[in-house]
Amino acid sequence: MNDPSTIEPQMPLGDNTPAFSVSELSMAIRRTVEGAFGRVRVRAEISRPTYARSGHLYVALKDENSVIDGVCWKGSVNRLSIRAEEGMEVIVTGKLTTYPGSSKYQIVIEQMELAGEGALLKMLEERKRKLAAEGLFDADRKQSLPFLPRRIAVVTSPTGAVIRDILHRLSDRFPIHVMVWPTQVQGQGAAEKIAFAIQQLNRLPETHPDQAPDLIIVARGGGSLEDLWCFNEEVVVRAAAASHIPLISAIGHETDTTLIDFVSDVRAPTPTAAAEIAVPVKAELVDFLADLKSRSFRALTRQLDQWQSELGFLSRALGDPARRIDDLTQRLDDQSERLHKAASRLITDRSTFLVQVFARLRRPDQILELRREGLNSQIQRLAQVKSRLFTDKEQQIATLSSLLEGFHKAIHLPLENGYAMVKDLGGNAITSAANAGKEPDLRLTFADGSLDVTNGKSQAPLKPKKAINKPADKRQGQLL
């Protein structure tokens, strides 16, 4: 584009002021701004950070009074030491320019750093409180390290002194298979790569069980707070907290502390110390096993000696087994002989007893004859008792008949002489005139029958009862 100073603008009639096009004016302003300021350093607070899919970073840099837009192209984003976050106080270095498409000026960011260590520590403390509140630092989440892992994975830079120190220390203590996962451990993008390494190592037990490590070491050498900042990023902390494989963090020197140290299962003060924690000393294990073998042999020898002594004592107390067997055999023979004699005597005694019992027994026909004679005798006695019983009963009946006849005559004799019995209709005897006046209906009994009387008037005579003729009782006749 031509220099505005060389442009000859069209001069309208009556006016000598030059007229620029919008593009000419915008480019003139850009050259003026870039020429006047060039490279600048700006201290500001980040607002609305946006990482576009193209890889560029767009931010707003502000203080209490003003705002200026900033852009960081993709190539520079990967070289930034920190990741832009809302509210972060930073110092950016870049070129001041304009954006003709919206008539505004902006700074093209080439470098970005936190505005002092205090701001960085403040951000670190806030993030630490947030993650602690989620329980990621709890002690009950810690895993125990394997005593002797078969395979160890080390996540670190492949070119630094850290990996050499770890490998050398492992070789001195206990040579073991080591997997090195090379990764960036500083600068923009390092946090994502470290987290990716931890996540991929945790997938190996499912995808490649024969290559899966038993222990992970995340290591880096010393540096400033900004250099170690990637180990404070949430993506790294959460990946370490989610690891199913025990993890040792070995970041910086003993005085350096990052957030990954709080979620790791064990924190090592240095990378070399991580190797010492990971495996025991082989020589010490060999010595320990040799000592254990020697102690076990001595203990077994003492036990065998004790058992041999106890066996000798028991042997002496037991005596000669052969002699003991002979004694028992002789005792068995003696008992067998005595048992045989006792059985013979028992059989003889039982036989004698059976003979005696048999001699006292009678033949069945004799028993039947005796039973028949006894039965006949009982029948005769029963007949005699029956005859006497019938005779006695006949005499008693005759006596009662005589008594009944005498009683009947005693009752009817007064009636035949003109007497009568007075009863109520219920058959109850009336023995006085007072009682007779109380009964409206009476029954008069004469010798030849009965007559019912109501209110003193005679009713139709009742049919006389037929007299019962019974044999006279001689004794009752005498009494009457």
Task: Explain this structure.
This protein has 480 residues and is α/β, with parallel strands linked by helices. It has four domains: 112 residues, OB fold (Dihydrolipoamide Acetyltransferase, E2P) (Beta Barrel); 149 residues, Hypothetical protein af1403, domain 2 (Rossmann fold, 3-Layer(aba) Sandwich), CATH 3.40.50.10550; 45 residues; 77 residues, no CATH class. The protein contains 13 helices and 14 strands. Strands 1-2-3-5-4 form a five-stranded mixed beta barrel. Strands 7-6-8-9-10 form a five-stranded parallel beta sheet, sandwiched between helices. The chain has a four-stranded antiparallel beta sheet with strand order 11-12-13-14, with no helix packed on it. A hairpin with a 4-residue loop joins strand 4 and strand 5. The radius of gyration is 70 Å and the shape is elongated.
For this structure, the CATH topology of the largest domain is: Rossmann fold
Fraction of helical residues: 40-55%
- Kindly state the number of beta strands: 14
Q: What is the CATH architecture descriptor of the largest domain? A: 3-Layer(aba) Sandwich
- The H-and-E topology, N to C, reads as HEEEHEEHEHEHEHEHEHHHHEHEEEH
Give the helix/strand class.
alpha/beta
